[in-house]
Specification:
Layout: E1 5-8, E2 11-14, E3 17-19, E4 34-38, H1 41-58, E5 63-66, H2 73-85, E6 94-97, E7 99-101, H3 112-119, E8 131-132, H4 141-154, E9 160-163, E10 185-188, H5 191-197, E11 210-213, H6 216-220, E12 224-230, H7 235-243, E13 261-266
Parallel strand pairs: 4-13, 5-6, 5-9, 6-8, 9-12, 12-13
Antiparallel strand pairs: 1-2, 2-3, 7-11, 10-11
Bound molecules: 2-phosphoglycolic acid (PGA).
Length: 268
């Protein structure tokens, strides 16, 4: 049953709730999403890396939104491989990562700037001045959120946003909540997210409790979105996100309203 929704110039009305996200991202017609169901993780990564490569080849000065977590690791591996073996050139692109833990510096092995260095930036010819990750150690986090949002706007927005999905339906660190947060903001992480991400830390108590994340509006304004997910444990939440009611309790469900969404789903 498709969600009952109505769109006007002030926002989206879904099942009688009015989400004021601004209307910029609502330009253009709603299109149906494209779902690629593939059989394994390697195939998912290959397809996603091909789409990102195509984006860079078609527009060498494009702006990419990047994700962290375990899902994109193989995608970055293939992009680095394509850089070495073909003429894929990262020097003109600009990137914005979705999120960063509060309190972790660029040099912290658990932080997302470090992750990006390890997984991609150190392996390709990206211009570091144009590779952005929120600063989790900023003295004034609210100011950092505004700075980050303004930087994305100044870059002309995101051409292609890569997204994973959390077990609880989060995108970036937009956790289930009573409202969709529009812009880059600071969040208290869900207990479920803290538990899920504890695997990356020596001690689960070290998982930061707060993070900076792009907002739902920031993500939805990307011209294209590429959502990747793999494994049985993501199946149910992906189904809810793509076919269930659009609700801030399943933040990824808002993606149903994006005009250009591609999903690559792999069973394993
Ligand atoms: P994962 O995380 O890739 O480590 O499963 C995805 C996410 O939380 O967005």
């Amino acid at each position: 049953m498709p969600p009952r929704l109505r769109i006007d110039r002030h926002g989206i009305i879904v099942e009688n709730t009015h989400y004021k996200l601004g209307y910029q991202f609502l330009r253009g017609d709603l299109k149906s999403m494209t779902i690629h169901h593939v059989s394994n993780y390697a195939e998912m990564c290959r397809k996603a890396a091909n789409m990102i490569s195509a984006q860079i080849l078609l527009n060498p000065t494009c702006t990419l939104g990047l994700a962290t977590g375990s899902t994109p690791i193989g995608i970055y591996e293939r992009l680095a491989d394509a850089y070495n073996k073909s003429d894929l050139d990262f020097s003109g692109i600009t990137t914005f990562n979705l999120d960063e833990y509060c309190g972790l510096s660029e040099n912290d092995p658990q932080g997302y700037y470090y992750y990006m260095n390890e997984q991609l930036f150190n392996k390709v010819n990206i211009d570091r001045a144009k590779a952005h990750v929120p600063n989790g150690t900023a003295g004034d986090i609210a100011l950092e959120c505004r700075r980050y949002e303004a930087l994305i706007t100044a870059a002309g927005g995101i051409d292609l946003q890569l997204l994973g999905i959390g077990n609880n339906g989060h995108i970036g660190f937009n956790e289930p909540s009573s409202a969709f947060e529009k812009d880059t903001h600071c969040v208290e992480l869900d207990e479920e997210t803290i538990i899920a991400n504890a695997r990356f830390f020596d001690n689960p108590d070290d998982v930061p409790r707060r993070a900076i994340t792009m907002g739902i509006g920031t993500i939805m304004q990307a011209k294209k979105i590429l959502l990747v997910a793999n494994g049985e444990k993501k199946k149910e939440i992906l189904q809810k996100a793509l076919y269930g009611p659009i609700t801030p309790m399943v933040p990824a469900s808002i993606l149903q309203l994006h005009p250009d969404l591609t999903v690559i789903w792999s069973d394993t």
